[in-house]
């Protein structure tokens, strides 16, 4: 998720878990918590935010979808297309992630996540993520840690599908970036992009599920030419 710099935006203090607004016109690279005085490097915070969004999407939501199917059906028969998570839930993941990698107090992490949940009590759950009780918050932190630890101990089928989802989305992002560089009216340029994707589809080392997703991308590109 891209976040504009030099604009007012919310920052989570990684020391005291206070959420504050980074004001426009202050130091463009650093935000200072008004509660505890800790300075936060905005570039590093942006990177942490992106990592948290990825962990929330793949380590929590997709995992829950796949695990439910295996539990109920004994196999995975369908895949979901998830919308972007609300920012407050990403912030909750930032709290969990920063606490894990920074050895923060467990109680501090839980306190921060509770605050985010209470600030949006009427929002629907995202991808089966629940944060209403201490047990659910502890489960959420545990799932975050498991993703950081490369999903060790997770069912091999689920781990493989999560990685496939990540690769497929990465292909889509690369395609979107490529399309930004060409005029859609320039069919020759677009054809070159499509041929590049087609070569990946034919590649023997491209997983079957990735090939399916890339074929869908091809169809979308060609439809734009009509």
What's the gist of this structure?
60% of the residues lie in helices and 6% in strands. With 226 residues, the protein is mainly alpha-helical.
What does this molecule look like?
- This protein has a two-stranded antiparallel ribbon with strand order 1-2. A two-stranded antiparallel ribbon has the order 3-4.
- β3 and β4 form a beta hairpin.
- The model is unreliable at 1-6 (pLDDT under 50).
- It has helices at 42-73, 87-102, 106-119, 134-148, 156-180, 187-202, 208-225, and strands at residues 9-12, 19-22, 30-32, 39-41.
- α2 (87-102) runs antiparallel to α3.
- The protein has seven helices and four strands; from the N terminus they run ββββααααααα.
- The protein has two domains: 42-148, no CATH class; 156-225, no CATH class.
- The chain has 226 residues and is mainly alpha-helical.
Features:
mainly alpha, two-stranded antiparallel ribbon, disordered N terminus, 7 helices, 226 residues, single chain, two-stranded antiparallel sheet
Q: Total strand count, please?
A: 4
The poorly predicted ranges are 1-6
Counted up, domains total 2
Encode the helix/strand succession as letters.
Answer: EEEEHHHHHHH
Helix content: 55-70%
